[in-house]
Design brief:
19 helices, 0% strand, globular
Length: 408
């Protein structure tokens, strides 16, 4: 329940008091109070409202005790009021008004005064509710590096006196890429959890889809908003087939495609057309096109791997990254054979960010296994096992290692 409510709770408190640190602290205090009271008194009918009321009271008490803190917040509030007075009237948003508090705060934290990676990290940690290690995984950096980045972003907000307010309509397109990145990263953590007992965190994935729908309605002319929503729908459509009866991961080639959500796939396919029409393609539109090709195929063998490789070539020009290069190498292996794909993966071994990226080691292990190089495959699987964050991933890798020993 806390995971579900935390982001909304923080968003409401930041809007009310204009201070992220204060909001985080009183949120934690409200949860501590719940842990004391609810076991004896029972869980309230509206637990989120109980937490919000408790957190607000604690914030007010803290401001009354700390006059210096209250004075600093008063300055921030005055800045915010001046900015709102200079902004267009609310009806200028028309159909584009931000109807969701959490989405409002996502746009607020996408302030151009913050470095792009810093504002994305801050939003994921504080407002999307991801832990610091989960955010670090999204960026392929050590947890300590990410913690420093989040502290730096908070300090920048405080020193630069950046107001927490809904940006004006003409500011939304400039901040859109940062918000799209946040929703993409939020969905990624839901699709493949970085830690815990389950492979998927459907609550996060579904929240990302919900917010992406709002964003697309808000900015219907933005093709990348359509592309992101398409991508999330086309991937989330497979959620029911991605795990087995005991929560174990099921590879794409082994999934029962009859369990895929066809209505969601059709909705996503229509959005792909919109995302790719009217100008050069954006990265989310291209990724959505890849997902559509997977969803349209009857099985792995009949998948248009040549087209997928071509799309990854485009994606590498738009957003060069080692993760995209790994995905392209796997697609090349499906098109041209495991030896060709393995050569591409081995060429990426000098990329330091891939040392902490488990799917890279898994991909190498799978291709080595297909080539009959069981000993080398086992080494790769052991590397992946050390990096795996969820128990289903670890169990699957142990099975691969066991099968390799039996074959040997």
């Amino acid at each position: 329940m806390f995971r579900e409510e935390r982001g909304l709770l923080l968003a409401s408190l930041v809007r009310r008091f204009g201070d992220l640190d204060l909001a985080e602290e009183v949120t934690s205090e409200a949860v501590e109070a719940a842990l004391r009271h609810w076991p004896a008194e029972g869980v309230p009918a509206r637990p989120g409202a109980w937490l919000l009321t408790t957190a607000r009271r604690k914030a007010v008490d803290r401001l009354r005790r700390d006059q210096a803190y209250a004075a600093r917040l008063a300055v921030l509030q005055a800045d915010a009021e001046r900015a709102e007075a200079a902004a267009p009237a609310p009806d200028a948003y028309g159909t584009g008004e931000l109807p969701d508090e959490r989405l409002q705060l996502f746009f607020t934290c996408a302030h151009p005064a913050l470095a792009a990676e810093d504002r994305t990290a801050l939003t994921l940690r504080c407002l999307a509710g991801l832990t610091t290690p989960e955010v670090a995984r999204a960026f392929l950096v050590p947890t300590a590096t990410m913690a420093q980045r989040i502290v730096r972003a908070k300090k920048k907000i405080r020193v630069a006196r950046i107001p927490f307010r809904v940006p004006a309509p003409d500011e939304l397109p400039e901040r859109l890429p940062g918000v799209l990145q946040v929703l993409y990263s939020l969905f990624t953590e839901g699709y493949a959890a970085s830690s815990g007992p389950r492979l998927q965190r459907l609550d996060l994935a579904e929240e990302a889809v919900r917010l992406a729908r709002i964003l697309h309605r808000l900015l219907p002319a933005e093709r990348e908003a359509a592309g992101l929503l398409a991508l999330l729908l086309l991937v989330h459509a497979r959620r029911g087939a991605r795990t087995g009866p005991k929560g174990e991961p099921v590879l794409l080639e082994d999934q029962d495609r009859g369990l895929w959500d066809r209505a969601m796939i059709e909705e996503g396919r229509a959005l792909v057309v919109r995302a790719l029409t009217g100008g050069p393609a954006g990265p989310y539109g291209v990724q959505a096109a890849v997902a559509a090709l997977h969803d349209e195929a009857a099985d792995v063998e009949s998948t248009d791997w040549a087209q997928i490789v071509a799309l990854y070539d485009v994606l590498l020009t738009l957003t060069p990254s080692p993760v995209v290069a790994v995905n392209r190498a796997v697609a090349v292996a499906m098109r041209d054979g495991p030896g060709t794909g393995l050569a591409l993966l081995d060429a990426l071994s000098v990329e330091p960010r891939l040392r902490a990226y488990g799917p890279y080691a898994v991909a190498r292990g799978d291709l080595l296994s297909r080539l009959g190089r069981g000993g080398e495959a086992a080494v790769a699987y052991r590397e992946a096992l050390e990096l795996a964050g969820t128990e289903p991933e670890r169990a699957a890798l142990r099975r691969k290692l066991g099968e390799g020993r039996e074959e040997g």
